[in-house]
Amino acid sequence: MSVHDSASARSQLSVARPQLSLSINRPAIGFELLRQWLKQHARGLLQPRLQKLSKETGLPYTRLRIGLQKTRWGSYSGKGTISLNAGLIFMPETLVDYIIIHELCHSRHMNHSPAFWALVESYRPDYRQHDRAMRHARRYLPAWLACH
Question: Tell me, what CATH number does 55's domain have?
Fold first, then answer.
């Protein structure tokens, strides 16, 4: 993955597992490369999890979008698109599953009504605990992501 800047010098990010190497000439370009890599990497980890939970629950979605939202961990659109925050890959699997289940439940209830929460609870009886934990979930993010 590489980016050219206006001075025609090249910045690049390379991955040789387990190491991520970043060569930059401007910090802003480095952060953009890391963000691009994180979204790509997150798709590879989150998409199979979403597919599995959708199949297990019978709750549908049409498309997955990966972003780096500052205030949301996930959302569900009226067209069935689930948006997940790439930062989820730094969190415990139980919290990731809770967010995915939460968003999948919006396929039946596009609100946070008692019926919605009852559906969430049917798949995750301990959802209240996970919901509380998500209030402090930014602590799981690496410093380079949390500050941008």
Answer: 3.30.2010.10
